[in-house]
């Protein structure tokens, strides 16, 4: 099972997830530790769930059109939309405390 390490507000949360898990879905049903994940629409329209991928990016698919539209230049800085990712390998993410521009 993939391990997810999630950094937010100076704290580190870690947990295992089943393969093909979406973290926004896990956050929505309050499964630890992902209720700490900031998100809103879950459909790639708002970019509230933008996270910086610190490790494991090589296992992710290429950004889809929603991520390209919402994140623009932030893609090059390692950001991805958590709502658009289905986790199949270990990953480490950080969600900055600042609100992301939509």
Automatic annotation (TrEMBL):
<dbReference type="Pfam" id="PF00111">
    <property type="entry name" value="Fer2"/>
</dbReference>
<dbReference type="InterPro" id="IPR001041">
    <property type="entry name" value="2Fe-2S_ferredoxin-type"/>
</dbReference>
<dbReference type="GO" id="GO:0051536">
    <property type="term" value="F:iron-sulfur cluster binding"/>
</dbReference>
<dbReference type="InterPro" id="IPR036010">
    <property type="entry name" value="2Fe-2S_ferredoxin-like_sf"/>
</dbReference>
<dbReference type="InterPro" id="IPR012675">
    <property type="entry name" value="Beta-grasp_dom_sf"/>
</dbReference>
<feature type="domain" description="2Fe-2S ferredoxin-type">
    <location>
        <begin position="7"/>
        <end position="85"/>
    </location>
</feature>
<protein>
    <submittedName>
        <fullName>Ferredoxin</fullName>
    </submittedName>
</protein>
């Amino acid at each position: 099972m993939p391990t997810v390490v999630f950094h937010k507000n100076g704290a580190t949360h870690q947990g295992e997830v089943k393969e093909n898990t979406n973290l926004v879905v896990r956050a929505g049903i309050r499964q630890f530790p992902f209720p700490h994940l900031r998100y809103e629409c879950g459909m790639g329209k708002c970019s509230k769930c933008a996270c910086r991928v610190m490790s494991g990016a090589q296992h992710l698919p290429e950004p889809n059109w929603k991520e390209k539209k919402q994140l623009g230049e932030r893609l090059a800085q390692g950001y991805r939309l958590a709502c658009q990712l289905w986790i199949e390998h270990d990953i480490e993410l950080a969600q900055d405390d600042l609100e992301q521009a939509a």
